[in-house]
Amino acid sequence: MDFSYVSLDKSGKEIKGVIEAESLVQAKAKLKESGLLIIKVEPKKEGLFSKSQKISDEDLYTISKELTVLLSSGIVLDRSLKMVIDSIDKEHLKVFLEGILKDVKGGKALSIAFEEKKMFDPLVITMIKVGESTGNLRDAFDNIAKYLDFRIKFKNEIRNAMAYPMFLVVASLITLVAIFKLIIPRFFSIFGSNPKNLPLISKLLYDFSKSLNTKT
Q: Torsions phi, psi of 16, nearest 5?
């Protein structure tokens, strides 16, 4: 059974996480053995991290970069995952990585553990599988980080490129509304309330302007 906990280490730093134990008493005993000062321990709530919840590209990029550095240093996979878990603050990411770590320690391949979460681009899963088959997960996570970095920058460029055209469209609409509601009625007011002698196009503009002002 999994228990969520909040505790303090010897330096007073707050630590949140999930620990596996047969009972609440055993969970508290394990935490005390680790030298942690217990603040709160409770059964892990179901749905704290649902499979439908997506991990952002930015978060996965950070995880991939950290794993690349740790694996490059010769640290084994499960220890690297544990160090990444200890370094992040977002609770849902901790729960996700703790689930991955638990699967890996249980004998599952890393790619299968990721794939079962059903939250990732198939290309990311494929890169991890290639890394496993070649025995080089470091390069796999490095390639994932580069791919995500490109995707994040590409999305930002599209967002920035669309900002100016959208501003022009909104500004144009506001200008047209202002013209038809304020300027045109004053201009045509010199012809009276029934300007029969106006050209057809002028009449259409007048009628459209009149309809806008009537609605308000």
A: -115, 145
Q: Helix, strand, or coil here: 34?
A: coil
CA angle 128, 102, 82 (to 5 degrees): 80
- Dist CA 69 CA 28 (whole Å): 33
pTM, 2 dp: 0.57
Q: What's the number of CA atoms in the CB half-sphere (13 Å) around residue 40?
A: 9
**What domains does the chain contain, in order, with CATH numbers?**
1-46 (3.10.20), 49-216 (1.20.81.30)
Q: Are 19 and 3 in contact (CB under 8 A)?
A: yes
% of the chain exceeding 70 in pLDDT: 82
Tokens standing for 83? 């160090």
pLDDT band per the 50, 70, 90 thresholds, residue 199: low
Read off the tokens for 67: 């794993």
Residues 64, 147: Cα–Cα separation, whole Å: 10
